[in-house]
Amino acid sequence: MQNAEWNEASGSIDESWLTWHAVYRVIPDERPLIEDTLKQLCDDEGCCFVVTTGGTGPAPRDVTPEATEAVCERMMPGYGEQMRAISIKHVPTAVLSRQTAGLRGKSLILNLPGKPKAIRETIDEVFVSIPACIQLLEGPYIETNDSIVKAFRPAGLIRKSKPKS
Fold first, then answer.
1. What is the 3-state secondary structure (H, E, C) of 33-91?
2. Where do the MoaB/Mog domain residues begin and end (predicted)?
3. Which residues constitute the domain of residue 138?
């Protein structure tokens, strides 16, 4: 996703690299509201991939990981580990991050850091595995533009040919 742009003014990702519809919510750092919003996006909106930004530090108001864990059936700790490993190359305080990911039904929830620069650094690397994860959850087959991000899929998940429209 090398060319994806994070818009610092609006707090959103340039959708030109997406092949699906994006749904946005901007909410305060309040755990019950975060939990309700995550449930709504997964259960009511049917989002296969939910991304949060911010709220992953050690400050008392940083409760996004707790909200994510409360609504997920299973956690995906590898994403948090990878994001911290990426961030520690750029800033020593990355060890303070509590980024995580989890599964709710057929949805993957990913907690990204809050700073636009850190978001760009981490999403570029972790996104390569996300289409395979969503496919394993029986979600849609996500096509990617290889010049922007080349999704990694194990041999059993590679589509032999594109379906006819």
1. HHHHHHHHHHHHCCCCEEEEECCCCCCCCCCHHHHHHHHCCEECHHHHHHHHHHHHCCC
2. 8-133
3. 24-147
